[in-house]
Specification:
Layout lengths: L6 H15 L4 H29 L2 E4 L10 E4 L1 H23 L1 H5 L1 H20 L3 H19 L5 H32 L4 H7 L5 H19 L8 H4 L5 H25 L8 H19 L4 H22 L2 H32 L10 H4 L1 H15 L5 H16 L2 H26 L14 E2 L2 E4 L9 E3 L2 H19 L1 H16 L1 H9 L2
Antiparallel strand pairs: 1-2, 3-4, 4-5
Helix pairs in contact: 1-2, 1-5, 2-3, 2-5, 3-5, 3-11, 3-14, 3-19, 5-6, 6-7, 6-11, 7-9, 8-21, 9-11, 11-13, 11-14, 12-13, 12-18, 13-14, 13-17, 13-18, 14-16, 14-17, 14-19, 14-20, 16-18, 16-19, 17-18
């Protein structure tokens, strides 16, 4: 039964090769991608059910046991993240089938998208630092292709920035792995948790800082976030949605995993809390200064990462539980908001706020999707964002961390203001563009509207598949709030595992 852990890694990777061979049969490509990622989601749910009962699943690939061989480890934290990520990957894939930019580039999109799914799953399940590096490289390779999908000139420069920064981070990562191995003689994380206790504290702290910088670049925490706002907005909406929803959270996952398992301090970390506060506020202020939907949402990725690092910074079970809940909430809500941003851009031909008004009259469903998700992101009751922020504040009061609580509340106000800015700019007011859907032709479920002389905009009306997928995402976000009680119980169990490295070590090494 433990083999089910390997399914989200192996099956999409094998399917990517087959998908590439089917480049002349787009319908088969799409069908295979949906089937493969559905199987990955089913396997992820099976893993979560199993670890919820027994705590850990450990698989030694090739029969070589830890710390020598390659080990996959699924605990409650990894399983929760795996289910959340495979759900988003599958949902965004369905959305992309209806989106013209990813649909028309399907012969490249589907194989690369499956490879990206493999990299994400391997990042969450690997039990050693070197294979975590390999997983990040798999994601980087796929990311560059997806960011430049379509080959438009305005995509290349920000994509190059993304690649250069990622390569610098990768170089630092592999150097860090080498230094860790030189100091301890192992890269297996369970074995490292034991051996790091025997090396001098300054060396241990330096290694912890190096890995924090590496994963901080991936997670886009302050001051390592500068690459993100320019890189994401130019990509097709489905690509931006999956990047915004998942990739930075994989970086956060790596930070939580390594800092709790390998470098856990005795109390709250001042460094992490300062980074968290700065990340929240700088991201929030950056969002307020923008006048484009995707750029506002991109700065919000940064701001929301700060809340997750805040929960980790307390280094308590309550803080880590709040961080895990917030990560899952943000994966769902942020992905949804970028899909809504894609709907807006598709319908209006632009995401620029000065060029859009009154979309509420022409697209009330899209407006409802945005309103529900925006209220949750801002942390208003009774939505899931409120549950996450309340848990963070409660964890902060237990440790007396009043300054970071004040920063979090201020950042929440900035979030609310910027969400209001999008609402007022996009949905409020009188419509600038009139349209009659009956007068425009439909192509593959997408209604094509010719450019209007009055606006010069080239517009499409989103098809039912895209709207239905976004609606499902909104429903998942609401379900996180409605089912917050039972789900938070699972999250607290996961946090208890994460906060006690001895459980992880015993599960992997049996000692």
């Amino acid at each position: 039964m433990n083999f089910v852990v390997t399914i989200p890694i192996v099956i999409p990777l094998l399917a990517a090769g087959v998908s590439l061979a089917l480049f002349r049969r787009p319908l088969l490509q799409r069908a295979m991608s949906v089937v493969v990622l559905s199987a990955s989601l089913a396997a992820s749910i099976a893993v979560l059910v199993r670890v919820a009962e027994q705590g850990f699943i450990v698989v030694d690939l090739g029969g070589w046991g830890a710390p020598v061989g390659i080990t996959l480890v699924a605990d409650r934290f990894a399983a929760i993240m795996l289910v959340a990520s495979t759900t988003m990957v599958l949902g965004v894939l369905v959305f992309s089938i209806g989106h013209p930019r990813t649909r028309d580039e399907g012969f490249v999109f589907h194989p690369v998208y499956l490879i990206l799914s493999t990299g994400i799953a391997l990042s969450l399940l690997t039990g050693d630092l070197f294979n975590l590096f390999v997983a990040f490289e798999i994601m980087l390779s796929a990311s560059f292709v997806l960011l430049t999908l379509g080959g438009r000139r305005e995509q290349i420069r920000p994509a190059m920035t993304y690649v250069v920064i990622s390569l610098v981070a990768s170089t630092l990562f592999v150097a860090s792995v080498g230094l860790v191995y030189a100091a301890t003689g192992t890269v297996n994380m369970a074995d490292l948790a034991v051996r790091l206790e025997d090396i001098p504290e300054p060396v241990r702290d330096a290694l912890g800082l190096l890995l924090l910088v590496v994963f901080g670049v991936k997670a886009a925490i302050f001051p390592l976030f500068f690459w993100l706002p320019d890189s994401y907005p130019t990509a097709p909406a489905p690509v931006t949605a999956i990047f915004a929803g998942l990739l930075t959270k994989v970086g956060v996952y790596a930070i939580i995993r390594t800092q709790t398992l390998l470098f856990q301090p005795d109390g709250p970390s001042t460094l992490l809390l300062v980074c968290a506060g700065a990340t929240m506020i700088v991201g929030g202020l950056g969002a307020l200064a923008q006048d484009d939907v995707k750029r506002i949402l991109s700065f919000h990725i940064i701001s929301q990462i700060g809340y997750m690092i805040m929960g980790l910074g307390f280094f308590t079970v309550a803080g880590i539980a709040a961080a895990i809940y917030y990560v899952v909430h943000n994966i769902v809500i942020k992905t949804t908001l970028f899909l809504v941003g894609g709907l807006i851009e598709l319908r209006c031909g632009t995401g620029s706020l000065p060029r859009i008004h009154g979309l509420l009259h022409r697209a009330p469903v899209t407006a409802a999707f945005f309103g529900l998700s925006a209220l949750s992101l801002a942390g208003l009751p009774p939505f899931s964002g409120f549950v996450g922020k309340l848990a963070l504040v409660q964890a902060g009061t237990e440790t007396g961390s009043w300054a970071i609580i004040a920063a979090a509340l201020f950042a929440g106000l900035l979030t609310l203001m910027s969400m209001t800015k999008i609402w007022a700019g996009v949905f409020w007011g009188e419509p600038q563009i009139e349209e009659d859907p009956e007068e425009v032709p439909t192509v593959a479920g997408v209604v094509w509207a010719p450019p209007r002389e009055a606006t010069g905009l080239e517009r499409l009306t989103p098809g039912r598949l895209m709207l239905a997928t976004t609606g499902v995402f909104v429903a998942i976000g609401l379900a996180l709030a409605i089912g917050a009680g039972p789900f938070y119980g699972l999250v607290e169990d996961a946090a208890a595992d994460v906060a006690d490295p001895a459980r992880y070590v015993e599960a992997v090494l049996g000692r």
